[in-house]
Design brief:
transmembrane transporter activity; Growth Hormone, Chain: A; MFS_trans_sf; 479 residues; mainly alpha; MFS_dom; transmembrane helix; 2 strands; MFS family permease
């Protein structure tokens, strides 16, 4: 058999659809796992890397910034050059970054490696877009719900895994494990996921890419480092306002070229715009819980916490991820029956109940377990609904870029939550054995903020139009 015949057979061979979904779900789990990878060693990084705490903060910041910048860009590249091909590039980036971080004795290599790991965040929106291309319409919603759930599941399940590894092995081991996961994902995607055949013609917008990257880096640096630099410090104001100005100029430019990186006219459609704004609120509500709950569980009993180890605290948080995974098939059925808007509404209501329950009952560990389960329900429903709402409102040629933009808005929500909740807990703190620790009042204010943002998500969800956009068509349907 010659090479051309082999390629033709490869293109016409369609693996079982369930297997494709499973591989893309594994990619999503690996993607979200990267955010909790270094949590168990974060406080020890200055000692491990022989660097200042300000410098080691970049080990986390670099992942956040790289993921936010790469996600919408990789979505556009997937639309143009093939989603599977770009997914493979991102998986290779994950492997390379993991190896670099694992072999690096100093901070520079670890930061570079973490940035390359962060690029793999683009795997989830790309996976969702692949599902729309290759699955039958009857299976798309349930599959999207599953892949979307991995955004929360990977973090919830990954935290106890990384805690277990770091407690029993050298800290470099977590990066070797991440590299092995990335290699498995690369092989499975190459073997199982079919080659993309739906492409968007045109030239890649390099100027728009640079403008978006510069603007996002400025905004995210101001948000993520504002607590440390000071919210009115020259560095914070320069990066934040400078990034905002660059994004305004970027938007002006994108509206005036024939082949933009992101079609802002599509993004401005009411269902898409409102869904993206809701994504910020949902991302904030999720990460507010990720910041506050583990801290109160790990805080010493004498300081008002529960005195759990990191591993024990992560096991209390973990059921939220399990709930997200279990709910994913039900999310798809609800969306097919009544539409994804109701799913988003239910998700916001569940988050409101979770924070309300925590404000009333937070004196026992089991009560925080219940609250985390409610958070899992809210994020499971909400994250499943958002890509469905997006894909019902954008043309087939824009699915990758539009899902990437939606993921970007979620990232803005999570990074904002980390900054805001971190600032609240740092402000309401007292000295305990020479170390500042959050007070009960700080946690209460954090839960109030999370609940208020969940209410905002509910209001926005109620404003999203119900109808399915007539421009959206599934590739398996006849024209």
């Amino acid at each position: 058999m010659n090479r051309e015949e082999h390629q033709r057979r490869r293109l016409t061979r369609i693996p079982p659809q369930g297997l494709i979904v499973a591989v893309l779900a594994l990619a999503g789990l690996a993607s979200s796992f990267m955010f909790t990878l270094v949590v168990p060693i974060q406080s020890k990084l200055p000692e491990l890397l022989d660097a200042s705490r300000e410098d080691t903060a970049w080990v986390v910041t670099s992942t956040l910034v790289a993921g936010a910048v790469i996600t919408p860009i990789s979505g556009r590249l997937g639309d143009m050059y093939g989603k599977r091909r770009i997914l493979l590039v991102l998986a290779a980036s994950l492997v390379a970054g993991s190896v670099i971080a694992a072999l690096s004795p100093g901070i520079a290599g670890v930061i570079v490696g973490r940035a390359l790991q962060g690029a793999f965040v683009g795997a989830v929106p790309l996976g969702i877009s692949i599902l729309r291309d290759v699955l039958h319409e009857d299976r798309v919603d349930s599959a999207i719900a599953l892949i979307s759930a991995t955004l929360g599941v990977g973090g919830a399940l990954g935290l106890p895994v990384s805690a277990f590894i770091t407690e029993r092995a050298d800290w470099h081991a977590v990066f070797w494990v991440a590299g092995a996961i990335g290699a498995v994902v690369f092989i499975l995607v190459l073997w199982i996921v079919p080659v993309s055949v739906l492409r968007t013609a045109g030239r890649f917008d390099y100027v728009g890419t640079a403008g978006l990257a510069i603007g996002l880096v400025g905004i995210l640096l101001a948000i993520s480092r504002g607590n440390e630099w000071g919210w009115t410090a020259p560095a914070t104001l320069a990066t934040g306002l400078g990034g905002a100005l660059v994004l305004l100029l970027w938007g002006w430019y994108e509206l005036r070229i024939p082949e933009p990186l992101l079609d802002l006219r599509v993004a401005a459609r009411r269902p898409v715009l409102l869904t993206n704004i809701a994504s910020v609120a949902m991302g904030f509500a999720l990460f507010a819980s990720n910041v506050a709950y583990p801290q109160i569980l790990e805080l010493p009993v004498e300081a008002g916490g529960f005195g759990l180890s990191l591993l024990a605290a992560s096991l209390v948080v973990m059921p939220s991820g399990v709930v997200m995974m279990v709910l994913s098939p039900f999310s798809g059925r609800i969306a097919r029956t009544v539409g994804p808007k109701l799913l988003l509404v239910l998700g916001a209501i569940s988050l409101i109940v979770a924070y309300g329950f925590t404000l009333l009952f937070s004196s026992e560990v089991w009560q925080l377990l219940v609250a985390n389960i409610l958070v899992g329900m809210g994020i499971g429903f909400g994250y499943a609904a958002m890509p469905m709402l997006i894909m019902r409102s954008v043309p087939q040629s824009e699915t990758g870029a539009s899902n990437g933009l939606n993921a970007l808005f979620r990232s803005l929500g999570t990074s904002s939550a980390a900054a805001v909740i971190g600032a609240v807990l740092a402000t309401y703190a007292v000295e305990y054995e020479g170390v500042p620790v959050p007070t009960p009042q700080g946690f209460q204010i954090s839960f109030v903020i999370g609940g208020v943002v969940a209410v905002v998500a509910l209001v926005i969800a109620l404003l999203i139009p119900r109808h399915r956009d007539p421009q959206e068509r599934h590739p398996s349907l006849p024209e």
